[in-house]
């Protein structure tokens, strides 16, 4: 995540114009041939045909703060799925205030600090580096340990063609569905030197990652047994074009999984000192009914309010992978764009920068707990 650049706006307009007449779909043999040459198939704008880029060109796009889906590995499955848009959804207002408020008193900063210290100690969590792999193993072990007391809960790795894996923890419901999903991405990137450069990724997305671990811990400590199932996802390869979340969201769609709601936490630990603290709600590629639900959750349970963020545009974070599959998705962000963390994708994304705040971040872990409880109990 997550920048909106003027350059990107121009790119979108240019692409929109260039690709108005749809070309034939990319064939299976073309995908096989080009990807075996190391090329990547990127979707750069809504409705535009995807384009082939080298890894170096792809990295240059990232350095220009362009957003895209890397669809090399999901394009064919996606093409085979029905294109039907999801109907608008509505959700009831929060109605379990005493139970939720009591749960929220047990959300702890110290667990998040411990986990974030471990995650930032890896040189980077790049999706194709060995330390990126080690980081996914650390999260898997940590989440498994939390779930150890409950034989009904499964925690598993979701492997990819690259080295770092994604993770899915499932809390079964008393009924089979639909499922409520929380997501965060585990990978980090140093844009000047992805493979071996330092990328602590404290905020992007260490904070979202540990917020979800803490929400999971709090719910299990209270022996949470929902009516409808709940899943926690930690994604690999978000920084490389939303790879992990696309692999999982397209698989869920193709398997016919019903998803009640998806919420992404990607950066929750920073706001520009002196500005008003808010949950900045993503305004595009989201479900407005789900945003209405989020607003009422925030008003009911949070220490500060919400504000609508400026539209981030295409393929900003993992919520976009779920939105693309027609599932209701949402994304509360740490601050209005411009008041958010300027240190991302670099060696200086640490907890010691001025503006990093655990009392800010903990509100997102609490929101995750409230979201799951009110949605699924
Ligand atoms: C990337 O990593 C190198 C080596 O660790 C570091 O010197 C450099 O500052 C990093 N790049 C950025 C953009 O932070």
Automatic annotation (TrEMBL):
The reply to whether Transmembrane figures as a keyword in the UniProt entry is: no
User: Kind of enzyme, top EC level?
Assistant: hydrolase
Instruction: Give the record's keywords alphabetically.
Output: Aminopeptidase, Hydrolase, Metal-binding, Protease, Signal, Zinc
Q: Which Pfam families match?
A: Peptidase_M28 (PF04389)
Locate the Peptidase M28 domain: which residues? 167-371
Q: Does the keyword Lyase apply?
A: no
Q: Which GO terms describe its biological process?
A: proteolysis
Q: Which GO terms fall under molecular function for this chain's record? A: aminopeptidase activity; metal ion binding; metalloexopeptidase activity
Q: Which Gene3D superfamilies match?
A: Zn peptidases
Q: Which cofactor does it need?
A: Zn(2+)
Cite the EC number. Answer: 3.4.-.-
Instruction: Give the similarity note.
Output: Belongs to the peptidase M28 family. M28E subfamily.
| Record-given protein name | Peptide hydrolase
- State the organism of origin: Cerrena zonata
Q: What is the lineage of its organism?
A: Eukaryota, Fungi, Dikarya, Basidiomycota, Agaricomycotina
């Amino acid at each position: 995540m997550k920048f909106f650049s003027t350059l990107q706006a121009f790119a979108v307009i240019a692409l929109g114009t260039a690709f108005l007449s749809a070309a034939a779909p990319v064939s299976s043999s073309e995908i096989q041939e080009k990807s075996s040459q190391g090329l990547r198939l990127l979707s750069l704008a809504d409705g535009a045909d995807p384009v082939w880029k080298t890894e170096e060109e792809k990295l240059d796009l990232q350095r220009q703060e362009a957003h895209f889906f890397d669809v090399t590995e999901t394009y064919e499955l996606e093409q085979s799925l029905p294109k039907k848009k999801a109907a608008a959804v509505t959700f009831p207002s929060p109605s379990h205030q005493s139970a939720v408020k009591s749960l929220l008193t047990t959300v702890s900063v110290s667990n998040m600090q411990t986990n974030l210290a471990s995650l930032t100690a890896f040189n980077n969590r790049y999706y194709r580096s060995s330390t990126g792999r080690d980081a996914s193993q650390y999260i898997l072990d940590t989440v498994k340990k939390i779930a150890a007391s409950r034989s009904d809960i499964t925690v598993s790795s979701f492997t990819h063609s690259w080295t770092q894996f994604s993770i899915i923890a499932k809390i079964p419901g008393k009924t089979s569905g639909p499922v409520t999903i929380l997501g965060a991405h585990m990978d980090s990137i140093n844009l000047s030197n992805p493979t071996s450069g330092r990328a602590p990724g404290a905020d992007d997305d260490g904070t979202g990652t540990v917020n979800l671990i803490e929400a999971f811990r709090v719910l299990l400590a209270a022996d949470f047994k929902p009516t409808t199932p709940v899943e926690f996802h930690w994604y690999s390869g978000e920084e490389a074009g939303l790879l992990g979340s696309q692999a999982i969201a397209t698989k869920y769609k193709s398997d016919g999984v019903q998803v009640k709601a998806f919420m992404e936490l990607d950066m929750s630990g920073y706001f520009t000192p002196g500005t008003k603290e808010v949950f900045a709600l993503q305004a595009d590629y989201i479900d407005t009914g789900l945003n209405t639900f989020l607003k009422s959750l925030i008003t009911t349970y949070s220490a500060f309010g919400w504000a609508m963020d400026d539209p981030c545009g295409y393929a900003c974070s993992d919520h976009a992978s779920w939105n693309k599959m027609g599932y209701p998705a949402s994304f509360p962000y740490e601050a209005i764009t411009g008041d958010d963390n300027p240190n991302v994708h670099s060696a200086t994304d640490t907890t010691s920068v001025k503006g990093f705040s655990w009392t800010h971040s903990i509100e997102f872990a609490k929101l995750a707990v409230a979201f799951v409880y009110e949605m699924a109990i």
